Amino acid sequence: MAATNNFKKMAQEDQELIPHAPEKVEHQVMGVVKTGQFAGNVIELYFSKMIELIMMLFGATPSKKDQKDSESNGEVR
Amino acid sequence: MPLTEITNIDKQSDLLLIKQYLNNRDANAFNQLYRRYSTKVYAKCISMLKDEALAADATQEIFTKVFLKLGSFGEKSKFSTWLYSVTYNFCIDFIRRKKRDKQLFTDEAEDLPDLIDDDEDEEILAMEVGRLREVLELIPPGDKVILLMKYQDDLSIKEIAEALNKNESAVKMQLKRAKTKAQLAYKEKYTNY
């Protein structure tokens, strides 16, 4: 490729002319990210418990591992 | 967040930040990616859409899309390459929706004179910046994108093909035609000066 590349120079000029995307864009994007983060945490924390509860309603018994986990967390069954 | 953690996160590679986000759902890691690339994405959107408000909306939608698709980022290419592909495709789709009647790429059936040799890029790369900017506005947006991908973002033919969902030979042909079109536009506009 040639030593001169004015496409690069043009990109550099563009960035100097337009230093940053508006702050509101960052707020909105991070709002979506944090909502996703929250939803993910909720699913991770409660979804498995909900499945377990539904299974128990249908007559399944909790595994020994789950019982041990619950005991180590101080839960009473 | 402690200062040392902020400094460390600043130095991390894109890939580490992506893993950090995917494994721990760490919003700070995604924020770091945003801060690293938002200016470039915004500048590209302004260059393509010619409107600051539209470019701001586009930047927001592009980063939201990237956030939602981050899990499917295959690490086959660099994050920046993937991000710029999403950016260009978003802008092309936007322009396509806006101007249904306008040509996006040079028509392959169009009979263009063979002005450019495959290895002769010097002329187009050396165009004075102001003129280059004008020439890029005179060619179809799809041709502009392919030239920007190749010469501004240093994407390989393979990467451009993946980004535009075309095969490599089609991209090579499109690139050659885009260069010819740019060269013709330049000659038409500036030869008489």
If you had to describe this structure to a student in words, what would you say it looks like?
The complex is a heterodimer of chains A (77) and B (193). Chain A has 77 residues and is an all-alpha fold. Chain A has helices at 6-17, 23-57, 64-72. Chain A has 3 helices and no strands. The model of chain A has no long low-confidence stretch (mean pLDDT 79). Chain B has 193 residues and is mostly helical. In chain B, helix 3 crosses helix 4 (52-69). In chain B, 37% of the residues are buried. The model of chain B has no long low-confidence stretch (mean pLDDT 84). Chains A and B meet through helix 1 and helix 2 of A and helix 3, helix 4, helix 7 and helix 8 of B.
CATH class category name of the largest domain in chain B:
Mainly Alpha
Mean pLDDT of chain A: 79
Taking the sheet with the most strands of chain B, its summary is: none
Question: What class would the helix/strand composition of chain B place it in?
Answer: mainly alpha
The general outline of chain A is rod-shaped
DSSP, total strands of chain B: 0
Distance between the termini of chain B: 59 Å
- Helix percent of chain B reads over 70%
Shape of chain B: elongated
Please tell me how large the radius of gyration of chain B is.
Answer: 19 Å
Helix content bin of chain A: over 70%
Q: So how many helices of chain A?
A: 3
Order of helices and strands of chain B: HHHHHHHHHH
| Overall average pLDDT of chain B | 84
Cα-atom Rg of chain A, whole angstroms? 26 Å
CATH topology of the largest domain in chain B: Rna Polymerase Sigma Factor, Chain: A
Q: How many DSSP E strands of chain A?
A: 0
Oligomeric description of these chains: heterodimer
